[in-house]
Amino acid sequence: xxxxxxxxxxxxxxxxxxxxxxxxxxxxxxxxxxxxxxxxxxxxxxxxxxxxxxxxxxxxxxxxxxxxxxxxxxxxxxxxxxxxxxxxxxxxxxxxxxxxxxxxxxxxxxxxxxxxxxxxxxxxxxxxxxxxxxxxxxxxxxxxxxxxxxxxxxxxxxxxxxxxxxxxxxxxxxxxxxxxxxxxxxxxxxxxxxxxxxxxxxxxxxxxxxxxxxxxxxxxxxxxxxxxxxxxxxxxxxxxxxxxxxxxxxxxxxxxxxxxxxxxxxxxxxxxxxxxxxxxxxxxxxxxxxxxxxxxxxxxxxxxxxxxxxxxxxxxxxxxxxxxxxxxxxxxxxxxxxxxxxxxxxxxxxxxxxxxxxxxxxxxxxxxxxxxxxxxxxxxxxxxxxxxxxxxxxxxxxxxxxxxxxxx
Length: 408
Description:
alpha/beta, Rossmann fold, 3 domains, eight-stranded mixed sheet, globular
């Protein structure tokens, strides 16, 4: 593909992402599948352009315009320092190049050129979140948000039901994929370079699963042991559920449920591939109560719906989709889930609250309110502490609080 054709492809992908219906990585992946003529270097260059725009979308829109074409122009000028004539040439309309710039776009380009040469800020986030983010990170704000704005590595969780970490690393190396142990998770590998993991035999045989190291640590913080009764109350597609099954060595019982039946339906084939036999999917009850499990669970995991602000490295489009109303709605949902989960925990058992958010409103504020309303629960320490972040741990941003129910 020519450089101009790559620009046209990036604009096409950003247009679909801007509709706000699908995650960016799904859109990028689907574009690659439907455009087989694009080689690996082409797909990589297009993907890098798309994510560069998403990470700097607020700055680029403020500097010029928020149409996909203008955002890509802003990346060419502000992100790469390209000259005006070079940008105009890329938008020639010839062959597979984007259509020529109209008068309004020429004016936008003039504005961008006037702003070129200035250093971009280290990060770009919605203004309404800055107060919360400052509260979360304090003096580390610049470092923390800059780290959340950088691309994330590819981490794998080793399925210890089938293989050790060392054996998995050897199998991947034999397939031409070099890895190194994750620095904090004892069951993780970090991939060196760019590889399609889901196409490997190691993945197809259930030996490894793509999973951020922070997510692995969150699953390990549940501290599930063989023989326990565990409820994963917001299981989604079951990534942490499978990690817990491995930690329990297929002994005991894990109940997996979610309000989204479609996502929960993806768990069955993943269970089969992983060789996990102690997971029982449960439909979400209409009254949101699980009376049959009252007081019977050694562990209840609440990996609650949240803003996803801790995963901006992987999903930068989420920064621009979340609104203040969304945060208010999410915090109400989080409070309701905590309230529903509390009676399910047996005395001496633990309720583990997890978000992939860095916002105190979704994290500390929810736990403080819960503990005030439930004096029979008390904080229980976790090995990693309550917060993970890319600037401190090299992981996505996670909040983890383990709360133990006191015996009568």
